[in-house]
Design a protein that fits this description.
The structure is a homodimer. The first copy, chain A, has helices at about 5-20, 25-40, 50-65, 70-95, 100-110, 125, 140-145, 160-175, 195-200, 230-235, 245-250, 265-275; strands at about 135-140, 150-155, 180-185, 210-215, 240-245, 260-265, 280-285. The first copy, chain A, folds into two domains: about 5-65; about 85-285, Rossmann fold. The radius of gyration of chain A is 18 Å and the shape is globular. Chain A is α/β, with parallel strands linked by helices.
Protein backbone atom coordinates (compact mmCIF):
# COMPACT_ATOMS: atom_id res chain seq x y z
CA UNK A 1 0.00 0.00 0.00
CA UNK A 2 1.37 3.38 -0.94
CA UNK A 3 1.26 6.49 1.23
CA UNK A 4 -1.69 8.88 1.00
CA UNK A 5 -1.61 12.57 1.81
CA UNK A 6 -3.79 11.83 4.84
CA UNK A 7 -0.75 10.07 6.31
CA UNK A 8 1.23 13.32 6.61
CA UNK A 9 -0.64 14.80 9.58
CA UNK A 10 -0.30 11.37 11.20
CA UNK A 11 3.48 11.26 10.62
CA UNK A 12 3.74 14.61 12.45
CA UNK A 13 1.51 13.39 15.25
CA UNK A 14 3.63 10.24 15.66
CA UNK A 15 6.87 12.22 15.57
CA UNK A 16 5.58 14.55 18.25
CA UNK A 17 4.48 11.65 20.46
CA UNK A 18 7.93 10.06 20.22
CA UNK A 19 9.70 13.38 20.80
CA UNK A 20 7.65 13.97 23.95
CA UNK A 21 8.86 10.66 25.33
CA UNK A 22 12.44 11.76 24.72
CA UNK A 23 12.43 15.36 25.94
CA UNK A 24 10.10 17.85 27.58
CA UNK A 25 12.00 20.74 25.96
CA UNK A 26 9.54 22.20 23.47
CA UNK A 27 12.26 24.04 21.53
CA UNK A 28 14.06 20.75 20.96
CA UNK A 29 10.81 19.03 20.00
CA UNK A 30 10.14 21.79 17.49
CA UNK A 31 13.65 21.65 16.06
CA UNK A 32 13.28 17.98 15.23
CA UNK A 33 9.65 18.29 14.09
CA UNK A 34 10.79 21.05 11.72
CA UNK A 35 13.40 18.69 10.26
CA UNK A 36 10.67 16.06 9.79
CA UNK A 37 8.50 18.60 7.94
CA UNK A 38 11.42 19.60 5.76
CA UNK A 39 12.21 15.98 4.93
CA UNK A 40 8.71 14.61 4.19
CA UNK A 41 8.44 16.50 0.86
CA UNK A 42 11.53 14.65 -0.40
CA UNK A 43 9.89 11.22 -0.02
CA UNK A 44 7.62 9.88 -2.79
CA UNK A 45 4.01 8.87 -2.20
CA UNK A 46 4.86 5.55 -3.83
CA UNK A 47 6.67 4.53 -0.65
CA UNK A 48 4.56 2.58 1.84
CA UNK A 49 3.67 4.49 5.04
CA UNK A 50 6.03 2.41 7.21
CA UNK A 51 8.91 3.14 4.84
CA UNK A 52 8.29 6.85 5.34
CA UNK A 53 7.76 6.33 9.06
CA UNK A 54 11.19 4.69 9.23
CA UNK A 55 12.74 7.90 7.90
CA UNK A 56 10.72 9.99 10.37
CA UNK A 57 11.84 7.91 13.35
CA UNK A 58 15.43 7.77 12.08
CA UNK A 59 15.53 11.58 12.04
CA UNK A 60 14.34 11.56 15.65
CA UNK A 61 16.95 8.98 16.66
CA UNK A 62 19.76 10.78 14.83
CA UNK A 63 18.88 14.20 16.21
CA UNK A 64 18.16 13.24 19.80
CA UNK A 65 20.54 10.31 20.18
CA UNK A 66 17.66 8.24 21.57
CA UNK A 67 17.20 5.08 19.51
CA UNK A 68 14.41 3.51 21.51
CA UNK A 69 12.06 6.03 23.16
CA UNK A 70 9.41 3.34 23.66
CA UNK A 71 11.78 1.01 25.55
CA UNK A 72 10.14 1.34 28.98
CA UNK A 73 6.64 1.30 27.51
CA UNK A 74 7.42 -1.90 25.62
CA UNK A 75 8.81 -3.64 28.70
CA UNK A 76 5.72 -2.61 30.67
CA UNK A 77 3.37 -3.70 27.86
CA UNK A 78 4.97 -7.13 27.73
CA UNK A 79 4.87 -7.42 31.50
CA UNK A 80 1.19 -6.46 31.68
CA UNK A 81 0.32 -8.91 28.91
CA UNK A 82 2.33 -11.71 30.53
CA UNK A 83 0.43 -11.14 33.76
CA UNK A 84 -2.88 -11.98 32.07
CA UNK A 85 -1.48 -14.83 29.94
CA UNK A 86 -2.60 -17.70 32.24
CA UNK A 87 -6.14 -16.34 32.50
CA UNK A 88 -6.37 -15.77 28.74
CA UNK A 89 -5.11 -19.28 28.08
CA UNK A 90 -7.77 -20.70 30.42
CA UNK A 91 -10.50 -18.73 28.63
CA UNK A 92 -9.35 -20.01 25.25
CA UNK A 93 -9.19 -23.61 26.43
CA UNK A 94 -12.88 -23.44 27.39
CA UNK A 95 -13.91 -22.29 23.90
CA UNK A 96 -15.36 -24.79 21.39
CA UNK A 97 -12.96 -23.61 18.66
CA UNK A 98 -9.73 -22.82 20.48
CA UNK A 99 -7.86 -21.90 17.34
CA UNK A 100 -10.45 -19.33 16.35
CA UNK A 101 -10.54 -17.92 19.88
CA UNK A 102 -6.75 -17.64 19.93
CA UNK A 103 -6.77 -15.91 16.53
CA UNK A 104 -9.36 -13.49 17.85
CA UNK A 105 -7.18 -12.81 20.89
CA UNK A 106 -4.18 -12.20 18.65
CA UNK A 107 -6.18 -9.65 16.65
CA UNK A 108 -7.49 -7.99 19.82
CA UNK A 109 -3.88 -7.71 20.96
CA UNK A 110 -3.17 -5.62 17.89
CA UNK A 111 -4.96 -2.75 19.61
CA UNK A 112 -1.70 -2.26 21.51
CA UNK A 113 -0.09 0.10 19.01
CA UNK A 114 1.69 3.28 20.03
CA UNK A 115 2.07 4.32 16.39
CA UNK A 116 -1.68 4.73 16.19
CA UNK A 117 -2.94 5.30 19.72
CA UNK A 118 -3.26 8.97 20.50
CA UNK A 119 -2.94 8.72 24.25
CA UNK A 120 -1.87 6.41 26.99
CA UNK A 121 -3.31 3.01 26.44
CA UNK A 122 -3.79 0.17 28.86
CA UNK A 123 -2.67 -3.22 27.62
CA UNK A 124 -5.58 -4.72 29.53
CA UNK A 125 -7.93 -2.92 27.13
CA UNK A 126 -6.38 -4.80 24.23
CA UNK A 127 -6.32 -8.10 26.05
CA UNK A 128 -9.45 -7.92 28.13
CA UNK A 129 -10.75 -11.41 27.63
CA UNK A 130 -13.42 -10.12 25.26
CA UNK A 131 -12.44 -11.75 22.02
CA UNK A 132 -15.80 -12.68 20.62
CA UNK A 133 -14.43 -14.92 17.86
CA UNK A 134 -16.01 -12.54 15.36
CA UNK A 135 -14.03 -11.10 12.46
CA UNK A 136 -15.48 -8.34 10.33
CA UNK A 137 -13.33 -9.61 7.48
CA UNK A 138 -13.40 -13.37 7.91
CA UNK A 139 -11.21 -15.73 5.89
CA UNK A 140 -10.67 -17.96 8.90
CA UNK A 141 -12.12 -21.01 7.12
CA UNK A 142 -9.40 -20.72 4.42
CA UNK A 143 -6.82 -20.61 7.19
CA UNK A 144 -8.36 -23.67 8.87
CA UNK A 145 -8.29 -25.55 5.58
CA UNK A 146 -4.63 -24.73 4.86
CA UNK A 147 -3.19 -25.19 8.34
CA UNK A 148 -3.20 -29.04 8.42
CA UNK A 149 -1.00 -29.06 5.28
CA UNK A 150 1.33 -26.33 6.56
CA UNK A 151 4.82 -27.37 7.59
CA UNK A 152 6.69 -24.09 7.73
CA UNK A 153 4.74 -21.14 9.10
CA UNK A 154 6.19 -17.63 9.06
CA UNK A 155 4.50 -15.35 11.59
CA UNK A 156 5.49 -11.70 11.20
CA UNK A 157 5.11 -9.98 14.56
CA UNK A 158 4.03 -6.45 15.22
CA UNK A 159 3.94 -4.85 18.66
CA UNK A 160 5.11 -5.39 22.23
CA UNK A 161 2.34 -6.60 24.53
CA UNK A 162 0.52 -7.97 21.51
CA UNK A 163 3.36 -10.48 21.14
CA UNK A 164 2.01 -12.36 24.17
CA UNK A 165 -1.28 -12.91 22.34
CA UNK A 166 0.72 -14.03 19.30
CA UNK A 167 2.50 -16.55 21.47
CA UNK A 168 -0.80 -17.97 22.72
CA UNK A 169 -2.10 -18.23 19.15
CA UNK A 170 1.07 -19.99 17.99
CA UNK A 171 0.88 -22.36 20.97
CA UNK A 172 -2.67 -23.31 20.07
CA UNK A 173 -1.66 -23.92 16.46
CA UNK A 174 1.15 -26.18 17.60
CA UNK A 175 -1.10 -28.11 19.98
CA UNK A 176 -3.50 -28.80 17.09
CA UNK A 177 -0.77 -29.43 14.51
CA UNK A 178 2.45 -30.60 16.13
CA UNK A 179 4.19 -30.88 12.73
CA UNK A 180 4.29 -27.07 12.49
CA UNK A 181 7.66 -25.37 12.38
CA UNK A 182 7.07 -21.70 13.22
CA UNK A 183 9.34 -18.75 12.53
CA UNK A 184 8.46 -15.52 14.37
CA UNK A 185 9.86 -12.44 12.65
CA UNK A 186 10.84 -9.39 14.68
CA UNK A 187 12.17 -5.99 13.57
CA UNK A 188 15.89 -5.57 13.18
CA UNK A 189 16.05 -2.44 15.33
CA UNK A 190 13.78 -0.59 17.78
CA UNK A 191 11.01 1.34 16.03
CA UNK A 192 7.96 2.67 17.92
CA UNK A 193 6.66 -0.20 20.10
CA UNK A 194 7.34 -2.87 17.50
CA UNK A 195 8.81 -6.15 18.63
CA UNK A 196 12.52 -6.85 18.42
CA UNK A 197 14.57 -9.79 19.65
CA UNK A 198 14.47 -8.21 23.13
CA UNK A 199 10.69 -8.49 23.34
CA UNK A 200 10.70 -12.01 21.94
CA UNK A 201 13.08 -13.02 24.71
CA UNK A 202 11.10 -11.19 27.41
CA UNK A 203 7.93 -13.11 26.60
CA UNK A 204 9.59 -16.46 25.92
CA UNK A 205 8.64 -16.63 22.24
CA UNK A 206 11.56 -19.02 21.73
CA UNK A 207 9.53 -21.68 23.57
CA UNK A 208 7.15 -21.96 20.62
CA UNK A 209 8.94 -20.51 17.59
CA UNK A 210 12.27 -19.77 16.03
CA UNK A 211 12.77 -16.02 16.39
CA UNK A 212 13.99 -14.40 13.17
CA UNK A 213 15.63 -11.01 12.92
CA UNK A 214 13.90 -9.60 9.85
CA UNK A 215 16.53 -6.94 9.34
CA UNK A 216 13.81 -4.32 9.00
CA UNK A 217 14.28 -0.96 10.66
CA UNK A 218 10.77 0.07 9.64
CA UNK A 219 7.55 -0.58 11.60
CA UNK A 220 6.76 -3.27 9.01
CA UNK A 221 8.47 -5.90 6.88
CA UNK A 222 9.91 -4.32 3.73
CA UNK A 223 10.29 -6.96 1.05
CA UNK A 224 13.43 -5.42 -0.42
CA UNK A 225 15.28 -5.09 2.87
CA UNK A 226 15.26 -8.50 4.51
CA UNK A 227 18.07 -10.27 6.29
CA UNK A 228 19.17 -13.49 4.51
CA UNK A 229 17.43 -15.68 7.10
CA UNK A 230 14.25 -13.61 6.79
CA UNK A 231 14.30 -13.84 3.00
CA UNK A 232 14.71 -17.59 3.22
CA UNK A 233 11.70 -17.93 5.53
CA UNK A 234 9.66 -15.48 3.48
CA UNK A 235 10.23 -17.34 0.22
CA UNK A 236 9.97 -20.89 1.56
CA UNK A 237 7.28 -20.71 4.21
CA UNK A 238 4.15 -22.70 3.33
CA UNK A 239 2.03 -20.13 5.15
CA UNK A 240 2.65 -16.50 6.10
CA UNK A 241 0.73 -14.64 8.80
CA UNK A 242 1.40 -10.91 9.04
CA UNK A 243 0.17 -9.04 12.08
CA UNK A 244 -0.90 -5.41 12.25
CA UNK A 245 -1.35 -2.39 10.04
CA UNK A 246 2.33 -1.78 9.33
CA UNK A 247 2.90 -5.23 7.88
CA UNK A 248 -0.33 -4.90 5.90
CA UNK A 249 0.78 -1.55 4.51
CA UNK A 250 4.12 -2.89 3.34
CA UNK A 251 2.94 -6.32 2.13
CA UNK A 252 -0.57 -5.76 0.76
CA UNK A 253 0.80 -5.87 -2.82
CA UNK A 254 3.00 -8.90 -2.21
CA UNK A 255 3.20 -11.58 -4.86
CA UNK A 256 2.99 -14.19 -2.10
CA UNK A 257 -0.19 -15.33 -0.37
CA UNK A 258 -0.43 -13.89 3.16
CA UNK A 259 -2.95 -13.96 5.98
CA UNK A 260 -3.30 -10.44 7.34
CA UNK A 261 -4.50 -10.28 10.95
CA UNK A 262 -5.11 -6.81 12.29
CA UNK A 263 -7.32 -4.26 13.90
CA UNK A 264 -8.13 -1.62 11.32
CA UNK A 265 -7.16 1.53 13.20
CA UNK A 266 -6.82 4.32 10.65
CA UNK A 267 -9.00 5.74 7.85
CA UNK A 268 -6.34 5.22 5.18
CA UNK A 269 -5.98 1.50 5.86
CA UNK A 270 -9.76 1.28 6.23
CA UNK A 271 -10.20 2.77 2.75
CA UNK A 272 -7.67 0.35 1.33
CA UNK A 273 -9.45 -2.60 2.94
CA UNK A 274 -12.88 -1.14 2.10
CA UNK A 275 -13.94 -1.62 5.70
CA UNK A 276 -14.76 0.75 8.58
CA UNK A 277 -12.19 1.89 11.11
CA UNK A 278 -12.44 -0.46 14.08
CA UNK A 279 -12.94 -3.60 12.01
CA UNK A 280 -11.24 -6.84 12.99
CA UNK A 281 -9.50 -8.30 9.98
CA UNK A 282 -8.61 -11.93 9.23
CA UNK A 283 -7.97 -11.54 5.52
CA UNK A 284 -6.46 -13.95 3.05
CA UNK A 285 -4.42 -12.17 0.39
CA UNK A 286 -4.11 -14.58 -2.55
CA UNK A 287 -0.89 -13.02 -3.78
CA UNK A 288 -0.31 -10.98 -6.91
CA UNK A 289 1.40 -12.93 -9.66
CA UNK A 290 4.24 -11.09 -11.36
CA UNK A 291 3.44 -10.04 -14.95
CA UNK B 1 -3.07 31.92 22.85
CA UNK B 2 0.14 30.81 21.22
CA UNK B 3 0.55 27.85 18.90
CA UNK B 4 1.39 24.42 20.29
CA UNK B 5 3.20 21.66 18.43
CA UNK B 6 -0.07 19.69 18.45
CA UNK B 7 -1.40 22.30 16.01
CA UNK B 8 1.02 21.24 13.26
CA UNK B 9 -0.70 17.98 12.30
CA UNK B 10 -3.95 19.97 12.32
CA UNK B 11 -2.54 22.64 9.98
CA UNK B 12 -1.65 19.88 7.51
CA UNK B 13 -5.07 18.29 7.86
CA UNK B 14 -6.77 21.63 7.23
CA UNK B 15 -4.54 22.39 4.25
CA UNK B 16 -5.33 19.01 2.73
CA UNK B 17 -9.07 19.51 3.23
CA UNK B 18 -8.94 22.88 1.47
CA UNK B 19 -6.75 21.52 -1.33
CA UNK B 20 -9.20 18.70 -1.95
CA UNK B 21 -11.96 21.23 -2.46
CA UNK B 22 -9.81 22.97 -5.06
CA UNK B 23 -8.41 20.08 -7.07
CA UNK B 24 -8.66 16.32 -7.27
CA UNK B 25 -5.12 16.11 -8.68
CA UNK B 26 -3.09 14.45 -5.95
CA UNK B 27 0.23 15.61 -7.40
CA UNK B 28 -0.94 19.22 -7.19
CA UNK B 29 -2.28 18.66 -3.66
CA UNK B 30 1.10 17.24 -2.67
CA UNK B 31 3.03 20.08 -4.30
CA UNK B 32 1.17 22.65 -2.21
CA UNK B 33 1.18 20.53 0.96
CA UNK B 34 4.95 20.22 0.58
CA UNK B 35 5.23 24.01 0.43
CA UNK B 36 3.13 24.26 3.59
CA UNK B 37 5.46 21.80 5.35
CA UNK B 38 8.50 23.75 4.20
CA UNK B 39 6.99 27.02 5.43
CA UNK B 40 5.68 25.98 8.86
CA UNK B 41 9.20 25.72 10.39
CA UNK B 42 9.80 29.39 9.58
CA UNK B 43 6.88 30.56 11.76
CA UNK B 44 7.38 31.03 15.52
CA UNK B 45 5.29 29.21 18.12
CA UNK B 46 4.58 32.59 19.68
CA UNK B 47 2.15 33.29 16.84
CA UNK B 48 -1.47 32.40 17.57
CA UNK B 49 -2.79 29.38 15.61
CA UNK B 50 -5.02 31.54 13.37
CA UNK B 51 -2.05 33.72 12.45
CA UNK B 52 -0.20 30.62 11.25
CA UNK B 53 -3.38 29.31 9.60
CA UNK B 54 -3.57 32.54 7.62
CA UNK B 55 -0.14 31.80 6.15
CA UNK B 56 -1.14 28.22 5.39
CA UNK B 57 -4.28 29.29 3.55
CA UNK B 58 -2.46 32.12 1.77
CA UNK B 59 0.03 29.60 0.37
CA UNK B 60 -2.91 27.57 -0.92
CA UNK B 61 -4.55 30.63 -2.49
CA UNK B 62 -1.30 31.83 -4.06
CA UNK B 63 -0.34 28.46 -5.47
CA UNK B 64 -3.74 27.35 -6.76
CA UNK B 65 -5.21 30.75 -7.65
CA UNK B 66 -8.33 29.83 -5.66
CA UNK B 67 -9.00 32.44 -2.98
CA UNK B 68 -12.23 31.02 -1.61
CA UNK B 69 -12.45 27.22 -1.79
CA UNK B 70 -15.27 27.18 0.76
CA UNK B 71 -17.45 29.59 -1.24
CA UNK B 72 -20.16 27.10 -2.24
CA UNK B 73 -20.11 25.43 1.17
CA UNK B 74 -20.59 28.79 2.89
CA UNK B 75 -23.51 29.77 0.67
CA UNK B 76 -25.13 26.40 1.32
CA UNK B 77 -24.48 26.65 5.09
CA UNK B 78 -26.13 30.05 5.25
CA UNK B 79 -29.06 28.85 3.16
CA UNK B 80 -29.60 25.78 5.36
CA UNK B 81 -29.41 27.88 8.50
CA UNK B 82 -31.79 30.50 7.10
CA UNK B 83 -34.29 27.74 6.32
CA UNK B 84 -34.54 26.79 10.00
CA UNK B 85 -34.44 30.40 11.29
CA UNK B 86 -38.23 30.82 11.76
CA UNK B 87 -38.55 27.55 13.64
CA UNK B 88 -35.53 28.34 15.84
CA UNK B 89 -36.95 31.77 16.59
CA UNK B 90 -40.28 30.21 17.61
CA UNK B 91 -38.51 27.76 19.93
CA UNK B 92 -36.58 30.59 21.60
CA UNK B 93 -39.69 32.70 22.06
CA UNK B 94 -41.30 29.91 24.06
CA UNK B 95 -38.35 29.71 26.49
CA UNK B 96 -38.54 31.38 29.92
CA UNK B 97 -35.15 33.09 29.42
CA UNK B 98 -35.06 33.98 25.74
CA UNK B 99 -31.67 35.64 25.94
CA UNK B 100 -30.07 32.59 27.48
CA UNK B 101 -31.73 30.33 24.93
CA UNK B 102 -30.53 32.53 22.08
CA UNK B 103 -26.98 32.55 23.52
CA UNK B 104 -27.13 28.77 23.71
CA UNK B 105 -28.26 28.61 20.09
CA UNK B 106 -25.41 30.92 19.06
CA UNK B 107 -22.91 28.62 20.78
CA UNK B 108 -24.52 25.52 19.22
CA UNK B 109 -24.13 27.21 15.86
CA UNK B 110 -20.39 27.34 16.45
CA UNK B 111 -20.30 23.62 15.67
CA UNK B 112 -20.41 24.69 12.02
CA UNK B 113 -16.68 24.97 11.52
CA UNK B 114 -14.88 23.56 8.50
CA UNK B 115 -11.50 24.39 10.01
CA UNK B 116 -12.14 21.79 12.68
CA UNK B 117 -14.66 19.35 11.25
CA UNK B 118 -12.96 16.39 9.68
CA UNK B 119 -15.73 15.45 7.31
CA UNK B 120 -18.87 16.75 5.74
CA UNK B 121 -21.06 18.33 8.32
CA UNK B 122 -24.75 19.08 8.24
CA UNK B 123 -25.71 22.54 9.39
CA UNK B 124 -28.86 21.02 10.87
CA UNK B 125 -26.63 19.13 13.33
CA UNK B 126 -25.32 22.43 14.64
CA UNK B 127 -28.72 24.09 14.69
CA UNK B 128 -30.96 21.21 15.60
CA UNK B 129 -33.20 22.91 18.07
CA UNK B 130 -31.40 21.23 20.96
CA UNK B 131 -29.89 24.15 22.81
CA UNK B 132 -30.42 23.13 26.39
CA UNK B 133 -29.47 26.51 27.87
CA UNK B 134 -26.61 24.77 29.63
CA UNK B 135 -23.06 26.10 29.44
CA UNK B 136 -20.17 24.04 30.77
CA UNK B 137 -18.32 27.29 31.40
CA UNK B 138 -21.05 29.68 32.53
CA UNK B 139 -20.47 33.39 33.00
CA UNK B 140 -23.91 34.20 31.62
CA UNK B 141 -24.98 35.98 34.80
CA UNK B 142 -22.12 38.47 34.37
CA UNK B 143 -23.30 39.07 30.82
CA UNK B 144 -26.89 39.57 32.00
CA UNK B 145 -25.69 42.08 34.61
CA UNK B 146 -23.63 44.09 32.12
CA UNK B 147 -26.02 44.10 29.19
CA UNK B 148 -28.54 46.69 30.50
CA UNK B 149 -25.68 49.22 30.81
CA UNK B 150 -24.21 48.41 27.42
CA UNK B 151 -24.60 50.96 24.66
CA UNK B 152 -22.10 49.86 22.07
CA UNK B 153 -21.74 46.11 21.58
CA UNK B 154 -19.07 44.64 19.31
CA UNK B 155 -19.92 41.11 18.19
CA UNK B 156 -17.01 39.40 16.40
CA UNK B 157 -18.45 36.78 14.05
CA UNK B 158 -16.97 33.45 13.17
CA UNK B 159 -18.45 31.07 10.60
CA UNK B 160 -21.02 30.92 7.83
CA UNK B 161 -24.23 29.17 8.86
CA UNK B 162 -23.45 30.01 12.46
CA UNK B 163 -23.97 33.67 11.55
CA UNK B 164 -27.74 33.01 11.37
CA UNK B 165 -27.71 31.94 15.02
CA UNK B 166 -25.67 35.05 15.81
CA UNK B 167 -28.34 37.15 14.13
CA UNK B 168 -31.07 35.56 16.26
CA UNK B 169 -29.03 36.18 19.42
CA UNK B 170 -28.43 39.82 18.47
CA UNK B 171 -32.13 40.25 17.67
CA UNK B 172 -33.10 38.96 21.10
CA UNK B 173 -30.61 41.30 22.76
CA UNK B 174 -32.07 44.25 20.87
CA UNK B 175 -35.63 43.27 21.74
CA UNK B 176 -34.68 43.25 25.42
CA UNK B 177 -32.46 46.34 25.26
CA UNK B 178 -33.46 48.62 22.38
CA UNK B 179 -30.71 51.12 23.26
CA UNK B 180 -28.08 48.67 21.98
CA UNK B 181 -25.96 49.68 19.03
CA UNK B 182 -24.40 46.52 17.65
CA UNK B 183 -21.40 46.18 15.35
CA UNK B 184 -20.91 42.78 13.75
CA UNK B 185 -17.31 42.18 12.66
CA UNK B 186 -16.54 39.99 9.66
CA UNK B 187 -13.22 38.90 8.15
CA UNK B 188 -11.61 41.14 5.56
CA UNK B 189 -11.12 38.32 3.06
CA UNK B 190 -12.34 34.77 2.56
CA UNK B 191 -10.64 32.28 4.90
CA UNK B 192 -12.00 28.75 5.47
CA UNK B 193 -15.76 29.11 6.11
CA UNK B 194 -15.40 32.30 8.14
CA UNK B 195 -17.91 35.08 7.59
CA UNK B 196 -17.14 37.99 5.30
CA UNK B 197 -19.33 40.85 4.16
CA UNK B 198 -20.82 38.49 1.57
CA UNK B 199 -22.22 36.20 4.25
CA UNK B 200 -23.46 39.11 6.34
CA UNK B 201 -25.43 40.31 3.33
CA UNK B 202 -26.76 36.85 2.48
CA UNK B 203 -28.30 36.42 5.93
CA UNK B 204 -29.46 40.03 6.35
CA UNK B 205 -27.21 40.83 9.27
CA UNK B 206 -27.53 44.52 8.35
CA UNK B 207 -31.12 44.38 9.66
CA UNK B 208 -29.86 44.09 13.24
CA UNK B 209 -26.26 45.35 13.24
CA UNK B 210 -23.73 47.51 11.52
CA UNK B 211 -21.44 45.14 9.62
CA UNK B 212 -17.77 45.96 10.10
CA UNK B 213 -14.96 44.77 7.85
CA UNK B 214 -12.36 43.81 10.44
CA UNK B 215 -9.56 43.85 7.91
CA UNK B 216 -8.42 40.44 9.13
CA UNK B 217 -7.32 37.87 6.57
CA UNK B 218 -6.91 35.29 9.35
CA UNK B 219 -9.64 32.98 10.72
CA UNK B 220 -9.71 35.25 13.78
CA UNK B 221 -9.39 38.89 14.78
CA UNK B 222 -5.71 39.84 15.06
CA UNK B 223 -5.37 42.85 17.34
CA UNK B 224 -2.45 44.32 15.42
CA UNK B 225 -4.07 44.09 12.01
CA UNK B 226 -7.44 45.82 12.25
CA UNK B 227 -9.06 48.19 9.81
CA UNK B 228 -9.51 51.72 11.25
CA UNK B 229 -13.27 51.19 11.72
CA UNK B 230 -12.61 47.87 13.43
CA UNK B 231 -10.03 49.41 15.76
CA UNK B 232 -12.47 52.15 16.67
CA UNK B 233 -15.18 49.65 17.58
CA UNK B 234 -12.73 47.39 19.38
CA UNK B 235 -11.42 50.19 21.59
CA UNK B 236 -14.70 51.98 22.25
CA UNK B 237 -17.25 49.19 22.54
CA UNK B 238 -18.77 48.85 26.01
CA UNK B 239 -19.03 45.12 25.52
CA UNK B 240 -17.22 42.68 23.21
CA UNK B 241 -18.52 39.23 22.31
CA UNK B 242 -16.13 37.02 20.35
CA UNK B 243 -17.46 33.86 18.77
CA UNK B 244 -15.57 30.65 18.13
CA UNK B 245 -12.19 29.11 18.68
CA UNK B 246 -10.25 31.28 16.25
CA UNK B 247 -11.25 34.52 17.95
CA UNK B 248 -10.53 32.93 21.33
CA UNK B 249 -7.08 31.85 20.17
CA UNK B 250 -6.17 35.33 18.95
CA UNK B 251 -7.83 37.33 21.74
CA UNK B 252 -7.45 35.21 24.89
CA UNK B 253 -4.57 37.44 26.07
CA UNK B 254 -6.32 40.70 25.22
CA UNK B 255 -6.09 43.60 27.62
CA UNK B 256 -9.78 44.24 27.05
CA UNK B 257 -12.64 42.38 28.70
CA UNK B 258 -14.31 39.98 26.25
CA UNK B 259 -17.10 37.42 26.41
CA UNK B 260 -15.93 34.31 24.58
CA UNK B 261 -18.75 32.14 23.23
CA UNK B 262 -17.68 28.90 21.61
CA UNK B 263 -17.81 25.19 21.33
CA UNK B 264 -14.51 23.79 22.52
CA UNK B 265 -13.58 21.60 19.57
CA UNK B 266 -9.88 20.81 19.84
CA UNK B 267 -7.57 19.46 22.55
CA UNK B 268 -5.24 22.47 22.46
CA UNK B 269 -8.00 24.99 23.13
CA UNK B 270 -9.47 22.57 25.67
CA UNK B 271 -6.15 22.53 27.54
CA UNK B 272 -5.96 26.29 27.44
CA UNK B 273 -9.50 26.59 28.81
CA UNK B 274 -8.92 23.72 31.26
CA UNK B 275 -12.12 22.08 30.04
CA UNK B 276 -12.91 18.91 28.06
CA UNK B 277 -13.27 18.88 24.28
CA UNK B 278 -16.97 19.26 23.52
CA UNK B 279 -17.63 21.83 26.24
CA UNK B 280 -19.92 24.77 25.60
CA UNK B 281 -18.20 27.96 26.68
CA UNK B 282 -19.73 31.28 27.79
CA UNK B 283 -16.62 32.73 29.40
CA UNK B 284 -15.98 36.23 30.66
CA UNK B 285 -12.37 37.27 30.15
CA UNK B 286 -11.70 40.16 32.54
CA UNK B 287 -8.91 41.58 30.42
CA UNK B 288 -5.23 41.73 31.16
CA UNK B 289 -4.05 45.14 32.26
CA UNK B 290 -0.85 46.33 30.60
CA UNK B 291 2.11 46.50 32.98
Amino acid sequence: MRTYLDCYPCFLRQALAALRLITDQEAEQKRVLDLVMQTLPTLPLEYSPPRIARTVYSIIARETGVENPYREIKIASNRQALAVLPELTRIIERKPNRLRAAASLAISGNLIDFGVQHEGFKVSEGLNGQFPDHFDFDDFSTFEQQLPETKKLLYIGDNAGEIVADKIFISQMKVAYPQLEVGFAVRGAPIINDVTIVDAKQVGMTEVARVINSGSRAPALLEDEMSPEMADWFLHATMIIAKGQGNYESLSQSELPIFFLLQCKCPVVADDLKTPVGSTIFKYHHGCQAE
